[in-house]
Amino acid sequence: MKAAGAHQAILAVWRIEQPRLITSLARLLRDVPLAEDLTQEALIVALERWPKAGIPERPGAWLMTTAKHRALDHLRRRRMLDQKHEMIVREMEEDEQIMPDLDTPLDDDIGDEMLRLIFTACHPLISREARVALALRMICGLTTEEIARAFLVSEATIAQRIVRAKKTLSESGLSYETPHGEELSQRLASVLEVVYLIFNEGYTAARGENWMRLQLCSEALRLGRILTSVAPQEPEAHALLALMELNASRAAARTDADGNPILLLDQNRDRWDRLQIRRGLKALIRVHELGGAGGVYALQAAIIACHAKAGTADETDWRRIADLYAELALLVPSPIVELNRAVAIGMADGPEMALEIIDGLRDEPALKDYHLLPSVRGDLLYKLGRYDEARQAFETAAALAENQRERDLLLRRAAEAAGAEKN
Amino acid sequence: MRFMSIVTSSDHMQPTPELLEAMHKLADREIKAGRMIDTAGLMPLATGARVTIKDGKLRVVDGPFVEAKEVVGGYAIFELQSKEEAVALAVEFMQLHKDFMPGWEGTCEVRAYFEPNAEGVCDPLAEARA
């Protein structure tokens, strides 16, 4: 095998096997951070040996054996210090003697283990940023370097976050368990938040030149799919998946050939991904079946679904969108939701009524530096023929926009308004 | 990146129960890992049809198609990071066939989905965009 090709092939195999390795080892050792370390060590051994020996027929079992041997070494060293580990070592050694079958721990139903792993990685004790890094690394198998690149921070920063998070997990002696009842929904909320955070970081990259970092979107979608298959009874998990699928379905239409953003209503709907829309709508149906249509993610997904279902921009059901935003505002009162509701009202009832809502938001401290407020205001003023005010609003918005592409678009609109004023 | 794995074979062997179980396990694992989006086996050729255009004429041919040497037995759709991952999964899938259905011969073909802006593909909507 050529070295570079072998390297990539090994990483691919490892990415596939890694979450199962961590979950199986974590169950054996009752220690997630240690399981993660051992999995990484197994990868290093594979990277040393496989380029020469070739990838084994059962790479998962091979990696598991290697990690288990490392675990035994590690635990033997600590045996005198820790009674619990002694017991585990004995169990594992007996296991090995009686039954050298290494496939079994890999073949067990990993659904629950995966759920536990996600709950552990997204534990509220750990900082939000570290939860993101841990989830991407332990569940999606992204390397520290890949995570760093996606979030535009240094590799050292990500490595540090992961080390600190693992230390928190070890020191707090967190039980590696799936919570139940009330605690489950609370913890699930934290998990969903992390997944959506990853998605949004990819979907609207707030910093930098590129408008989207699609790899993060697909990893978030992957996490969403894992959640819905390992916790199929949770409507908000399906709702978040629906929301992400429906948003992602527009990815190809959101920028032009030069990378400039195209607004939703101007997008070429032929470029929307029909398969993804179908999957999103299917997930939304599941949400309704589970009685969760009133949830925060469900309402947002329902709003995006209105766009996805409209064959042309003119066919958009703005009345329903406005109603859904009103419902969302009751659940999570926020000036941003109100801003979006204003946009829908503007489409359903005309710019006059929307401008009234927008002007009511002008003193909201949360929107003080938010470029979309003057941007929407500019749009409404433009429609009302108040071009000079529209130009000023677009200029204000451009000054506030952090994304270069968005700033360019807003400046173009300001110039448009200035042109209309002259005529 | 989205990939489609297509299994073809000129063999008409029914999968053994052991193979079916192993494939089910693999599919279950892949769905729970969030990588597999869809998978299915396909019915024999007699249940299908082909619609062709040849010499300017459109024709519907009911299956089975005598000229078909290779039969598509099933497909799976994955969302993965790289071709290497798709190949690794195809290798694992075929290894199951080797283990649980000795004597069977066939092919698992891996194809990447079209993506706008990808290199080496023709974009059907390129003109509309320009």
TrEMBL record, chain B:
Pfam families in UniProt: YCII
Against InterPro entries, the record matches this protein to: Dimeric_a/b-barrel, YCII
Domain named YCII-related: which ranges?
1-90
Q: Which family does it belong to?
A: Belongs to the YciI family.
> What is the name attached to this protein's record?
YCII-related domain-containing protein
Q: What organism does this protein naturally occur in?
A: Rhizobium tropici
